[in-house]
Amino acid sequence: MAHVLSAGIRPARRTLGITYAVRDVVALAHEVAKTGKEMLFLNIGDPNKFDFETPPHLIEAVLRAMQANHNGYSGSSGIPAAVKAIEREAARCGIANIRDVFVTSGGSEAIELCLTALVDKGDNVLIPYPGYPLYEAVLAKLETEARPYYLDESKGWQPDPEDIRKRIDAKTRAIVLINPNNPTGAVYDRQALKRILAIAAEKGVLVFSDEIYDKMILSDKPHVSIASLDHEAPVVTFNGLSKGFLAPGWRIGWGIVSGNEGLLKDYVAAINKLLRARLCACHPMQHAITAALDGQKDFIASVREKLIRRRDITHEMLNSAPGISCVKADAAFYAFPKLEIKGPDEEFVKGLIRETGVVTVHGSGFGEKPGTRHLRVVFLPQEETLRKAYAGLLDFLKKNRKG
């Protein structure tokens, strides 16, 4: 007998606050593309869509694993060889007192598992503005407040430890750092990291450090893993193969829990409950971790050379006209230029797509200081494409400048 529904199926309320700006603009871009307009995509941070390729020795490691029939489940935390390779890489970065290492389906799963194991409804977690929107999406699902702290654009998008301190209260469970930062390309100063660790210790909160872009440093400024600065501090460090090793579609990431054992014992146990419940990350791809972390990394130099040229074009052109200014990125492949425009940056981005075919992401999708307007660009495309896209952007800006 057929059932007749008098109303649609009501979705869970926890989904109402979930947005993901990076992909939300794609639907509009696809509609514009149907009109025949040439599209210039500066919105998705996927190196493999451009002239970057996964290193052959990683592919060979996966093929060998598949041919050896490593196609079933692995242990929940990952294969032992991969876990050991991650531990060695952590030691090279100065991380000690490691309490757990686990391999996940991309860095995103590691982040979601670790937040899920930590927070309860009504808690809050401090996240950077601007920052990667995944954190807000996950925290919305967990009914936990994503409480922003603001990076300082006037100081190269550095975190302000005192701004972080004043936002912590009795319900704060963690401070999230994204270093190098997406979407600004900033690399954080050692002294700022030390002060943030001291504040975390004083307030009794955990530090999450997302370091997925640590192989893509584009300046002489060194990247420092915050966990290396205090071996007793409770820190979870996230990384993976997607960016630095040019394998985003493989969905291989990991988490490293380090610090005082007594403080972390119960939390590590909670993470492992969740790891067991979801079985494992993709088994064959895990065999690339040892090849990546312990193998040759010559390819990184050529990647950096391309990105530095494209970063410099970005910085030059996005500082070349009234109404736009851009901090030079020290890492990754993003820039976050500031706009002087009449209305919201989301409307500016939509108009830019419709009129020029240039696809960026509105800065409000990553969080920004109230009263400011930005957009995020990805400078992975080839130089000719970047110049064409930025020329279109600057021409559109002339018509939409404030004043």
Furnish the topology, listing elements before pairings.
Blueprint lengths: L20 H4 L1 H8 L6 E2 L14 H12 L12 H13 L5 E8 H11 L7 E6 L4 H8 L3 E6 L10 H7 L4 E7 L11 H14 L2 E5 L24 E6 L11 E7 L2 H17 L5 H4 L1 H7 L4 H19 L6 E2 L8 E2 L2 E2 L5 H12 L1 E2 L1 E2 L12 E4 L4 H18 L3
Parallel strand pairs: 1-12, 3-4, 3-5, 5-6, 6-7
Antiparallel strand pairs: 2-8, 7-8, 9-11, 10-14, 13-14
Strand numbers in spatial order across the main sheet: 2-8-7-6-5-3-4
CATH fold-level name of the largest domain = Aspartate Aminotransferase, domain 2
**Alpha-beta content class:** alpha/beta
- How many helices? The count is 14
- Fraction of helical residues: 25-40%
Domain count, please report it.
2
Ranges with pLDDT <50 over ≥5 residues? Answer: none
Identify the overall geometry. globular
- How would a crystallographer describe the biggest sheet? 7 strands, mixed
CA-atom Rg in angstroms:
21 Å
CATH superfamily of the largest domain: Type I PLP-dependent aspartate aminotransferase-like (Major domain)
Average pLDDT taken over every residue: 95
CATH architecture of the largest domain: 3-Layer(aba) Sandwich
**SSE order:** HHEHHEHEHEHEHEEEHHHHEEEHEEEH
Please count the beta strands (DSSP E, at least 2 residues each): 14
Strand portion, in percent? 15-25%
Distance between the termini: 65 Å
CATH class placement of the largest domain: Alpha Beta
